[in-house]
Amino acid sequence: MDGELCFDAGSLEAASTDFGGLVRQPPAAVLRPGSAEDVAAMVRHCRARGMKVAGRGQGHSTNGQAQVASGLVVDLGTLDSVEIRDDDTAVVQSGVRWSTLVRASLARGLTPPAFTDYLELSIGGTLSAGGLGGQIGHHGTQVDNVIELQVVTGEGELTTCSPTVRPDLFRAVLGGLGQCAIITRATLALVPAPRSVRLYTLAAPSLAALTAQQARLIREGRFDYLVGQAHTPSPEGWSYMIEAAAYDGTAADDARLTGDLDHTAVEVQDLPYFDFLNRIAPMVEVFESMGEWRRPHPWFDSLLPASAVNSVVSETLATLKGGSIGASAVVLLYPVLTAKCATPLPVMPDEELAYLFSLLKTASPGADSAEEMVAANRRQYDATLAVGGRWYPIGSVPLTTDDWVRHFGSFWDEFKAARHRYDPDGILTPGQRVF
Ligand SMILES: Cc1cc2nc3c(=O)[nH]c(=O)nc-3n(C[C@H](O)[C@H](O)[C@H](O)COP(=O)(O)OP(=O)(O)OC[C@H]3O[C@@H](n4cnc5c(N)ncnc54)[C@H](O)[C@@H]3O)c2cc1C
């Protein structure tokens, strides 16, 4: 063994919780692997004894997804090597955080093309979910930018997969919630990095104005990055904000980029590229100092078809009283061009344009309780499905196996076949509760 197997109370406690703070399941042991071979050997060991196993990146799940009651948690943080290659690719072990990868690639003038909002998530963690962000209109999700994976299957086999080598495994692992293999290494595409970013924050006069303009802008590809938010209600009601960024943009671009947009106010900032990517870090520090970061986070994330976004979002927001979803709650509305998302997972609505609609809740004092929030998430999930929407499966929604079958839709048969082929004893990642 190159790494270590830990049984101490501190290691077990750390692996029995997550960012969500809703589920607590102590494992029997925690592996801090020194190599991918360690992971393979321990998966074989556990399989022979009927023990369950899950990989853990940064533990930023919200519903126990990386936990294994009385099983083995593989803390992938020790698989932390990064290599930036001359062919504009990065070869990274799965425990590396995106912040570490982008710092290394920027030293060579390169960057991964697609990011999540928060950079302190692991490569393996976001590739197991999908990885959606503001660059999706040009580059798809993070899983769309993976060239090759090294994985350990549920049989304990260390192998590689790609679009041409074991493509069934590749398709089932990317966005595959750890159900078929543990990712130990990824080869990722890199692109030339901008030096600076001109970021426009535009106040939209209404929800309809926000979604209509996002639709137009993402189809035109006018900005390099495009997202949006609804802000918690004031006496005047909810307010809406578009964030749009031009890489290496200057003041000379302002009129062309924003002159015809319907907005009531605009703020413009020039940021170094890394600071732009990392701009929620100061907000996280504030939430940490408020104690909000350690409170329960019953998150809900969905992908709504464009045809239903205004009705579902307005009906949902109308039910949320000020503060009911927490002192640090954030409501996201990101446009998604589904054709840019070429991998089968994460599952997308069946329309050319969709919106990520996320209710990032915190059970703060005075807000709804965590249990009430989880129950509301289930109702929101049903309302989402009823209009052809999909769950983005990173949050806290109680689902049955039948729900999962419906969630995966036409990909279910292929996904189930991959699970049976690569994890025949069903030992991997029970915290997702898919099988
Ligand atoms: C503050 C914050 C901001 C976020 N912003 C975004 C965003 O903008 N866009 C977005 O798409 N998501 C976002 N997320 C969600 C995030 O991408 C997922 O929850 C992701 O899975 C978390 O990564 P992690 O390293 O913490 O994974 P963990 O929580 O450790 O694990 C998540 C799941 O993946 C499995 N897993 C972990 N590593 C591996 C591996 N190497 N191989 C196989 N399975 C593995 C685990 O077993 C578990 O089931 C955000 C989450 C937080 C907390």
Number of helices: 14
The biggest beta sheet reads: 8 strands, antiparallel
State the end-to-end CA separation: 31 Å
User: How would you name the CATH homologous superfamily of the largest domain?
Assistant: FAD-linked oxidases, C-terminal domain
Mean pLDDT figure: 97
CATH classification, class level of the largest domain: Alpha Beta
**Spatial arrangement of strands, main beta sheet:** 15-12-14-13-17-18-16-19
**Residue share in β-strands:** 25-35%
Q: Spell out which ligands are present.
A: flavin-adenine dinucleotide
Q: Which value, in Å, is the CA radius of gyration?
A: 21 Å
Indicate the percent of residues in helices.
25-40%
Query: How many structural domains does the protein architecture include?
Result: 3
Low-confidence residue ranges: none
Structural class comes to: alpha+beta
* Principal-axis shape: globular
Kindly report the CATH topology of the largest domain.
Answer: Vanillyl-alcohol Oxidase, Chain A, domain 3
Annotation, overall tally of beta strands? 19
Task: Provide the CATH architecture of the largest domain.
Answer: 3-Layer(aba) Sandwich
